[in-house]
Design brief:
One of its GO terms (molecular function) is oxidoreductase activity. Keywords: Membrane, Oxidoreductase, Transmembrane, Transmembrane helix. It comes from Grammatophora oceanica. This is FAD-binding FR-type domain-containing protein. This protein has 568 residues and is of the alpha/beta class. The protein contains 24 helices and 14 strands. A hairpin with a 6-residue loop joins strand 6 and strand 7. The longest helix has 30 residues. The radius of gyration is 31 Å and the shape is elongated.
Length: 568
């Protein structure tokens, strides 16, 4: 009932819906098949004792329909017990025997048998019709053709970027999941994947499929050469991760490809700037990890991002990846979730471990970008005049949302510190760097309009920059940002050297949630109930052991826990 669920999720009835539908589905299937087997055996024994088993089994409506019911039920449920060894296509095909199961139930007991099963013809007929109409609605009105799709092929997976319709974007909340069909692979196969928004283009949705089974391997192999062939998409449908909006502080735990629904939550929180999405991601695929870090999908200024790399292949994050945001920490090994989760909560609740205190503010980030731009300009010292440099920096600062005059002081502090380290100059309270306004600045000051004073101040600060060309032209942005005190000889920087990291030495972490924090579990347990209600743990991934551990942690700390799974 995917269309029905998607509709109810947009109404007040969503407050009363059971979100863990996958667990409910498994529980109901298990109960029905074992209950059906016991029911069948009991009737067969009774009929055998009465001596009319053959007559009732093959001529009576209850016996004939019962045979179809139990046979279809076993064929639907038992292959799922061996889901790791039986192909997905076969397991899904057997689920279509559900229609035989329901039709047989409609004839299993006569309507006159009320209250002993006489309701079955009415109830199951309504449910069957409802299910068929729901499926037809999804197939016709919630399915769309994506004519042009962008594929980003990695060694172990594929990122798919697609333009979706207004209906798709407006249906429900951000994120969720969809079903995808590649007709040039198999017209009868639809596979579920979590959706996340393209941070660059809000009109686009993205999915990431890891090469794990026959179908995903076939898709991966077919994309070794560029293609623009269309695909079909059904959805979007709400997922348990939609519960993230119910919490001010979110603990997003993911394993492997389970990171994708968390990306949507992080993106939404980043846009709103109100919630704290704290991510704990366990991943062993270095290609997937590198891709998501380089594309800046994991950036979240108000939440911790702890990435635990568990792969066998060596993975070393380059400096650009490490310095994008000081809240992103790559740790080699498996996490001790029993200590990591309460440590994050304690740090935020007490204010001792607020993520934004360990990451650059918007103004600091603007200073970073201006410093990088300055290095580029100094590299072109023979091509641009001082006035052109100032004009360029002023425009660049305006694009970042600041006046250049508001950033000059912070930029001066950083450059003076670095200049001291590199050239060992004696600078007494910055006086040696200020100097008098040179002839060019004076000329500009006398001919400028109402901004004369500001321009003069900028050019006065530019006197700092004019003492740095010999040094700055030899320093890469990486060296300038690190603040190293070594007096090496530096080769001319390349464009690749211009990486972000200016604030690394200024934002050394004081609080480390990935390390054991004494008393954090007891702190969380003693929190008032009204404060605990603001926290929620959400998990997506295929590791049942990890899911069970998180459920135990959530129960121990008295926190809400939701899980998303496509464990077919």
């Amino acid at each position: 009932m995917r269309a029905t669920t998607a509709f109810l999720a947009t109404t007040p009835f969503s407050m009363f819906m059971f979100e863990e539908l996958h667990d409910l589905h498994v529980y109901c299937g298990t109960t029905i098949v074992y209950g059906g087997i016991i029911h069948t055996i009991a009737h067969l024994l009774r009929w055998a004792d009465q001596g009319n088993m053959f007559h009732l089994l093959f001529t009576d409506r209850s016996g004939i329909s019962g045979a179809f019911i139990i046979a279809s039920c076993i064929l639907i449920c038992f292959p799922m017990m061996f889901w790791k060894t039986i192909r997905f296509e076969l397991r899904k095909f057997t689920h279509y025997l559900f229609y035989i199961f329901v039709i047989a139930l409609c004839f299993h007991a006569p309507a006159s048998a009320v209250p002993n099963g006489g309701f079955a013809p009415y109830v199951f007929s309504i449910l069957l019709l409802w299910t068929m109409l729901d499926s037809l609605y999804v197939y016709i009105y919630m399915t769309e053709k994506i004519e042009t799709t962008v594929f980003n092929v990695l060694p172990t997976g594929i990122q798919l970027t697609m333009d979706v319709s207004d209906r798709f974007r407006k249906s429900g909340e951000q994120g969720g999941y969809c079903y995808v069909c590649f007709p040039w692979i198999d017209k009868n196969q639809w596979h579920a994947f979590s959706l996340f928004e393209n941070p660059v283009n809000p009109r686009q949705r993205q999915i990431f499929m890891q090469k794990t089974g026959d179908w995903t391997t076939a898709v991966h192999e077919s994309l070794t050469r560029n293609t623009n062939r269309p695909i079909w998409v059904q959805g979007p449908f709400p997922s348990p991760y939609s519960n993230s909006i119910e919490y001010d502080n979110q603990l997003l735990v993911a394993s492997g490809i389970g990171i994708t629904p968390a990306l949507s939550v992080i993106r939404r929180a980043h846009q709103e700037g109100a919630r704290r999405p704290n991510l704990v991601w366990m991943v062993r695929d270095p290609h997937m990890l590198e891709f998501f870090m380089q594309e800046s999908y994991l950036e979240s200024g108000r939440g911790w991002t702890l990435v635990y790399y568990t792969g066998k292949q060596p993975f070393v994050a380059n400096e650009n990846m490490e310095n994008q945001n000081s809240n992103i920490c790559v740790i080699h090994g498996r996490p001790e979730l029993e200590s990591v989760i309460p440590a994050i909560i304690q740090g935020i609740e007490t204010g001792k471990g607020l993520p934004e205190q360990h990451g650059p503010s918007k103004k600091q980030q603007a200073v970073v970008e201006l410093a990088e731009e300055l290095v580029r300009l100094e590299m072109k010292s023979g091509e641009l005049s001082s006035q052109e440099k100032i004009a360029h920096l002023t425009r660049h600062a305006r694009k970042l949302g600041f006046l250049f005059t508001d950033l000059v002081s912070a930029l001066e502090d950083v450059l003076v510190d670095e200049h001291r380290h590199r050239s060992n100059l004696v600078v007494d309270d910055g006086n040696a760097c200020m100097g008098a306004i040179d002839e060019e600045a004076a000329t500009v000051a006398t001919t400028a309009s109402s901004q004369d004073a500001s321009v003069c101040r900028i050019y006065r600060q530019d006197s700092i920059l004019k003492q740095l060309p010999s040094t700055a032209s030899r320093l890469s942005s990486r060296d300038l940002m690190k603040g190293s005190k070594k007096k090496n000889k530096y080769a001319p920087p390349t464009e690749k050297d211009l990486t972000t990291g200016l604030l690394k030495k200024r934002t050394d972490p004081l609080f480390t949630p990935w390390e054991s924090q004494e008393g954090s579990s007891e702190f969380v347990k003693q929190m008032p109930e009204i404060e605990k209600e603001r926290w929620g743990i959400l998990y997506c991934g295929g590791a049942k052991i990890l899911e069970s551990k998180l459920a135990h942690i959530a129960e121990d700390l008295d926190l809400d826990f939701h899980t998303e799974s496509f464990a077919w």
